Amino acid sequence: MFNPDLSSMVKVLERCEGKGVVLEVIQYERLEGHYVPGNIKHTNKLRQVRAYLNGGELVAEAGALQFMKGAVNMKVDSSLGSIARGILGGALTGESSVKPRYTGRGEIYLEPNYSHFLVIEMNHDEIVADKGIFYCCEGSVEVGVFAQKNISSAVAGGEGLFQTKLKGSGIVVLQSNVPVEEILIYELNNETLQVDGNYAIVRRGNIDFTVEKSTKSIIGSARSGEGLLHTYRGTGEVWLVPALKFVK
After folding, report:
1. What pLDDT does residue 243 have?
2. 26 and 11 in contact (C-beta within 8 Å)?
3. DSSP character for 113?
């Protein structure tokens, strides 16, 4: 008989309560008989996001659901306008074109994997996230597309022309190659941060992004060995990972 009590093998890494939604990041401490395709050995432990709905709403990436229990309803906006916006947004940000919404009362388990999950509590603010790292959020958070203001900076910086924009209040979960403890979170107060490389995965608040020469002249930039620098100006946060983002 199947025993749904996983308390002996599961550790709750993080728990956040929203409006009618509780989101948890759990980690499997031991998995006997665990099948890994190709017999690949992982040094990381398997992690998973689970949600408890009590009248609230959860938005997740399409295909992220593993199973759900209780009086939970899943709906997708099937209007032509929504589908068109979803397909366009998905193509631009590298995420699913249509994101299902879960409402009601019950439990939801999203697909486990070996990534780390970053839980962010938003309070009437805005986040610009790296392409493809959005995982799920409360229904009160608006998920959209951010267009870079400067095309040359987008191309030179490797960020691309479009990223994911999250706006409003509520809980957001992002995927990451590294745990939050290894992320450098710099708080800017009307200041400037310049980075030699594509290391930022999140910028939060009123932060402008450009790519600029490290010195005033092209010759000076070449001699310095640094060339172009990712430049962040304003008030808010910039989250930097310890390795270039192409390792994802």
Report:
1. 78
2. yes
3. B
